[in-house]
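Long-time lurker, first post. I've been practising inverse folding by hand and with some scripts of my own, and I keep getting stuck on stretches where the structure tokens seem ambiguous. Below is the full token string for one chain I'm working on. Before anyone asks, I'm not after the true native sequence, just a reasonable design that respects the backbone. If someone could post their per-position residues I'd love to compare against what I wrote down in my notebook.
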């Protein structure tokens, strides 16, 4: 049994290292998405997503009632591309909680959104990703948006 213990430890180490490597690749995909977002580079954004991506937002209407809105991805891209250069916007990711299982990953990313240097809103992004060959692609993105209780 003593002879097998180093081998078992080695296998456990390999599994942990592979998991960390996949989490790093998932994070890189999301960071590339936001690089495209902040530079209004819609081609870069498109490199990170599946052709069938689903985008939704959870917010509140004027009466404070929760709403779920599906967004057309091509319309999202057009709105990003049409932002004037004079507008400074930044989505600041506060942390990453990434989980993977084979070719599927989830990333939970609390954020703050700043518009022309002024706090606009906060929330959480939930990314679902699919590993297509060696690349991770975002297949589903849903976020929450609120102006209060940002630091729970």
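-- Answer (accepted) --
I ran through it position by position. Result:
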């Amino acid at each position: 049994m003593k002879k097998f213990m180093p081998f078992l430890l080695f296998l456990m180490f390999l599994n942990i290292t592979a998991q960390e490597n996949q989490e790093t690749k998932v994070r890189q995909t999301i960071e590339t998405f936001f690089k495209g977002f902040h530079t209004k580079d819609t081609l870069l954004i498109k490199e990170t997503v599946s052709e069938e991506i689903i985008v939704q937002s959870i917010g509140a209407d004027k009466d404070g009632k929760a709403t779920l809105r599906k967004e057309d991805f091509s319309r999202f891209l057009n709105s990003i591309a049409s932002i004037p250069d004079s507008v400074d916007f930044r989505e600041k990711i506060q942390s990453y909680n990434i989980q993977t299982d084979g070719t599927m990953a989830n990333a939970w990313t609390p954020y703050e959104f700043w518009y022309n240097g002024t706090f606009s809103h906060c929330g959480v992004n939930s990314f679902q990703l699919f590993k297509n060959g060696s690349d991770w692609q975002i297949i589903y993105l849903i976020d929450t948006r609120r102006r209060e209780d940002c630091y729970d």
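A couple of notes from the structure itself: The CA atoms of residues 99 and 132 lie 17 Å apart. The chain has one domain: 4-144. Happy to go over any region you disagree with.
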